[in-house]
Design goal:
alpha/beta; 406 residues; single chain; 6-stranded mixed sheet
Length: 406
Amino acid sequence: NMTTSVKFLSDLKTLGNKIVSFSDNETRVLIFLGFSLDSNKNKTSDKSMGEKLLSKISELVKENPETIYKKQAIFISNLPTDCAEALESFKAEVDMPIYVSFQSGDLYSSSNETGERTNISNLRRVDYEKEIKIGSFTVNFFHSDQKIINSSVIKISDSNGHVFVYFGALGYSESSPEKIDHWIQKLANRRADLLLLEGADFSFDNPKEKKLSQKEKDLIDNFADKLGSNHLVAINPDLQHILVLSALEKAARNFGRPIVWEKNYSNALKKFFSDSKPLTLGRDIDLPEIIAYPEDYVLQNSYDNLDNLKDFYKPIYLQIDGQPLDDHDSSYKIRRNKLNDLSAEFLDLGIFGQTGRTKLIKIVKQINAKLTIPFDSPNFEDEVALLKAEGLTAKLPEKNQDIEFQ
């Protein structure tokens, strides 16, 4: 029997790219746990994004003689646009398949229908709960019931029967708990040896936890309250949160003040909602028309296009979980300064990272892994202590540390 080595190729104590490798003598599976790529294009090009990733896993480059694995693959629980840009920038040098769920593939392809980016030729789309065999490892995607429609739970099994689970805990939905129970039961056949837990929710102080459905209702109500303004209303939502995009689109249409979307957003809406007819900036409505009649439209405005707001008088800017998300990203301060220069009213209506500790701990206790390792939390010490207080074994490994399972 071969020993499985789990190696942490990133520093879990800092926010940013997270890469974990599962390997034996012949096979290696890499899980990309998420990306926090600086969206300040003046500082970080797509090329340098890829170089940063490659620097963490330099042996991925196929010319490297140190590559000893007969089979390798990359698995990504969800494929946000910035992650795709990074992968594209080194795809020619990486001779291995990259697996994502069908929803991730659909979101990526819809955001790339404009032909602005090079397709990732080695991208493989996988159905939920369909086994993927990579050498001695078996990998499954499960629908995690996150409000980010393309996010997945990933289960890895080795030839010795060890089970490793990655669970990104964003957007737990109380509306359909049976979906969560389903994949937890699927994992219960054998107790997981290791749980990799995205712990952003542990960093939020939310003793009065609302149901996510109520938070989304509050978000739409607060959005609708601003639609009566004569000033331009601009929104910065997360492209992956497709259900929120649809709700915003309907609310604006019902008010009679439609949203004008950037191409990748309108393409995603049409991809996931066949009856949707979103307006597209530069195709259906031009910017000068919105400048002339700002009270008639809502403008979806991503960080890269902030300069589009310079000709509007005191625009209202609603931050709805779009990048840059918070002050952990250096671009966040730059954006706030730009909006201040424009005399813009800034409101953060996002619901990111508000699953709630109570619900998250409930799921972690149901999984009951032999070892739980959190990441993406500014409060690691408190989180580990809290998990231990619940009777769980938890720790935070150092960068490049190996944990062996025999």
